[in-house]
Write a structure and sequence with these properties.
Elements (H helix, E strand, L loop, with lengths): L1 E10 L1 H68 L6 H34 L24 H11 L1 H21 L5 E10 L6 H4 E10 L7 H43 L1
Antiparallel strand pairs: 1-2, 2-3
């Protein structure tokens, strides 16, 4: 018996909605990757600026040390010629010792930041960080927090991730609602039976239709539908929470920026 069989669904809602749900789940994963990329970029920038900050602090300490050494030399001359008491020498020596202690802490902090920065870039932990010469922070334009929040809610990948998850969940809901519909398929067979492959006397062909209708499942379909609806509601609540968190993040960042400008 040698045959060729072709099966073709004519009406099957499960195929359509399953395919649609899988496409939406893929878009959820794509949005998740996009959100991770945004977070990674932010971490790299923060680590880089923290490294620049340690470099600037060390430069300030160097200039401060020169100033204190000169002040110590001057104070010693004042004490030598009885123009001042020795406490001014002790005061400067204390400041120099404190400066060395602060420098050691900043050096340790720079090593930590350098290690973290190289970890983010998947480089050797001890690799040097090349900084931009003459780096300067540009002045920030006037920012309206409400406008920035509205823009973020349109562009943030976290929002898109949950929104696409909601679409996928609603598609599953629709799939569960349509499980009570029948499925209809077509089957075509062509082949031959016998010995020796005598095509003239052994060939045959058949055409058939198959109908499958699951009429009663107890309450299983209703339970599956309720579960899909609960998942949709949970995602909608997650979306509302994420929107609030993004608004809070932007307001905190805005106030931190204003504080930094004033400082």
């Amino acid at each position: 018996d040698t045959r060729l069989v072709i099966n073709q669904p004519l009406f099957n809602t499960s195929i359509y909605y399953n395919h649609k749900a899988q496409e939406q789940l893929i878009s959820v994963q794509e949005a998740k990757i996009a959100a991770y990329k945004v977070e990674l970029k932010n971490e790299v920038k923060q680590a880089y600026f923290n490294y620049l900050k340690t470099e600037q602090v060390l430069a300030i300490y160097d200039s401060t040390q020169l100033l204190l050494n000169e002040l110590l030399r001057t104070n010693r001359k004042l004490v030598k010629y009885d123009k001042a008491t020795e406490d001014i020498i002790y005061s400067v020596e204390y400041e120099l010792q404190k400066l060395e202690s602060d420098r050691a802490a900043i050096l340790q902090q720079r090593i930590t930041v350098q290690t973290y920065f190289n970890t983010l870039l998947n480089r050797d932990l001890n690799e040097a960080i090349i900084t931009e010469p003459n780096f300067d922070i540009a002045s920030f334009p006037a920012i309206n927090p409400q406008n920035m929040i509205a823009s973020a809610l349109q562009a943030r990948p976290e929002i898109k991730q949950i929104e696409r998850g909601i679409l996928a969940s609603k598609t599953v809901e629709e799939l569960q609602r349509r499980t009570n519909l029948p499925t209809l398929g077509l089957q075509v067979q062509a082949g031959f039976q016998g010995f020796g492959y005598n095509f003239q006397d052994q060939a045959y062909a058949t055409l058939g239709f198959g109908l499958n209708w699951n009429i009663f499942e107890g309450k299983q379909k209703q339970h599956r539908l309720e579960q899909a609806q609960l998942e949709t509601e949970q995602l909608e609540q997650d979306l509302a929470i994420v929107k609030q968190q993004i608004g809070l993040q932007i307001r905190e960042a805005w106030y931190s920026l204003k504080t930094a400008e004033q400082q």
